[in-house]
Amino acid sequence: MSDILIRPLEEKDHADWKRLWTNYLIFYKASVSEEVYATTWERLIGEGEFEPNGFLAFIDGRAVGLVHYIYHRSCWSLVNNCYLQDLFADASTRGKGVGSKLIKAVQDEAGKLGIKNVYWMTKEDNAVARSLYDKVATRTGFIEYDLL
């Protein structure tokens, strides 16, 4: 397998980003409006301490994975936390290091700001992702609740 290149999202990545994020949403049987796509993209490439950020993963020049992450304040620390919101790798590349490299890129970027707490969640039945997460992070035992 070729080397995996990870780099921050750039304006020129819109089509690759949209393709990957669409596939991520399909995986989770979800969808968003075109307005949400457009607003999310603008936020990802915009500036601001609390705007979302993202990286793409490339193999042989082809975008094969993405991650979105957001910094936010905490009542438990003087420095922000980092929420890894979305992580996706093309099905053809799963198990080949794309996800772990994207997670590491977020961890390294957060570390530049003194942020040690990078966290995320996944569906309980997402066995493939959980097998990676169990190798790279500690499961906290917290259960999520949503007011929808």
Structure, described:
This protein is α+β, with helices and mostly antiparallel strands and about 150 residues long. It has a single domain, classed as Aminopeptidase. It is about 35% helix and about 25% strand. A hairpin with an 8-residue loop joins β3 and β4. The protein is globular and about 40 Å long. The model has no long low-confidence stretch (mean pLDDT about 95).
Task: Give the assembly state of these chains.
Answer: single chain
Which structural class best describes the helix and strand composition? alpha+beta
Give the strand tally. Answer: 5
> Mind telling me the CATH superfamily name?
Gcn5-related N-acetyltransferase (GNAT)
Rough shape? globular
Q: How many separate structural domains?
A: 1
Overall mean confidence score, pLDDT: 95
Do you know the CATH architecture?
3-Layer(aba) Sandwich
Task: Provide the β-strand percentage band.
Answer: 15-25%
- The total count of helices amounts to 4
Radius of gyration: 15 Å
Largest sheet: 5 strands, mixed
What is the end-to-end distance? 43 Å
What pattern of helices and strands is seen along the backbone?
EHHEEEHEH
* Helical percentage: 25-40%
Q: Strand order within the widest sheet?
A: 1-2-3-4-5
CATH fold descriptor = Aminopeptidase
At the first level of CATH, the class is: Alpha Beta
The unreliable regions are none
Organism: Limoniibacter endophyticus
Keywords: Acyltransferase, Transferase
Pfam family, one: Acetyltransf_1
GO molecular function, one term: N-acetyltransferase activity
